[in-house]
Design brief:
Length: 303
């Protein structure tokens, strides 16, 4: 089930039911739904975004509960409608996510996510200390194989590389293949947790944008066993297991790569955002095979 990138770490995705798979080719995303606003202003412009339907309820709820904030955000979209994709406005998204990450430790988790999720809450760490890395890997995989989630066992050296890069570049823009093209997600590191939320969520809700996927990395056994354990939680209203698997695989693609030009996209996004080109992300996905991986129909696609 795992794609070619997933196999490098043994990244798995467990599903209780298997739906029919369909191929996905390269579909260019409408520019208006990526980093810049749609033509026009207000919610009418948002409606042109092919993924508006998924977030309609939350957007309308914001308009009802706080119309001033809603109008202010729509005006900001209008102000930058003539700016090129990848303009420094992207820095605003990064700052939003960084501010949110700083608050994660002090606020109760929303959307069913576990706050301060520790390895001890999943695995008896003391009991496995006498086991080999191979035995722990087998236990981890067997435990999660019956659960609707994504999980992996990451080699210590690969995680070291990811971790060092995450300190310098804590945010990145990921692309998820959809019927309409690609839906973009902002990923933000907060400690060893990696939080994802859709770009349209950030555009409409700002710093209040909720996480839709969290990858939990556990380096507890890294020194003694040479492995880092990973699992995830997701908001099933917006993301399925295959979606989460695709995003998790992209973390490996962009943060653990040996190719400087691929990691260079991450550096550009964080430090030279005016030069960032979203199509470069899609091009790397297509080349790696992730952008063409088949995925089952998700309820979120039909919203």
């Amino acid at each position: 089930m795992a794609g070619p990138l997933c196999q490098g770490w043994g990244l798995g995705a467990a599903l209780r039911s298997r739906a029919a798979l369909r191929p996905l080719g390269l579909l260019a995303p409408p520019a208006r739904g990526v980093l810049g606003p749609a033509a026009g202003s207000g919610e009418a412009a948002l409606e042109e975004n092919p993924f508006y339907g998924k977030y309609r309820h939350k957007i309308q709820e914001l308009r009802r509960s706080n119309p001033d904030v809603f109008e202010s955000r729509m005006e900001k979209r209008s102000e930058v409608k003539k700016q090129p994709v990848g303009h420094s406005k992207q820095g605003e998204f990064i700052r939003c996510m960084e501010e949110k990450a700083e608050r994660l430790g002090s606020k109760t988790s929303k959307g069913g996510f576990t706050k301060d999720k520790t390895l001890d809450s999943i695995l008896n760490v003391e009991m496995v200390k006498e086991k080999t890395a191979e035995e722990i890997t087998q236990i981890w995989n067997q435990y999660f194989s019956a659960k609707d989630t994504v999980y992996a066992v990451i080699p210590a050296d690969k995680f070291d590389l990811m971790w060092k890069r995450a300190q310098k570049c804590p945010s990145f823009l990921y692309a998820l293949p959809r019927k309409e093209g690609y839906e973009f997600f902002v990923g933000q590191w907060s400690g060893t947790e990696l939080h994802f939320t859709s770009l349209i969520n950030v555009q409409t809700q700002g710093e209040g944008a909720p996480s839709q996927l969290v990858l939990y990395h556990y380096p507890d056994l890294q020194k003694d066993k040479g492995i880092v354990l990973m699992t995830a939680e997701m908001d099933s209203k917006f993301l399925g297991v295959h979606d989460a698997q695709c995003l998790a695989s992209q973390v490996q693609l962009f943060y653990a790569t040996d190719r400087s030009e691929i990691y260079g996209l991450v550096e550009t996004f964080n430090h030279r955002s005016s030069e960032f080109k979203y199509m470069s992300v899609i091009a790397e996905l297509e080349q790696s095979g992730l952008g063409r991986e088949p995925r089952p129909e998700q309820a979120s696609d039909k919203s």
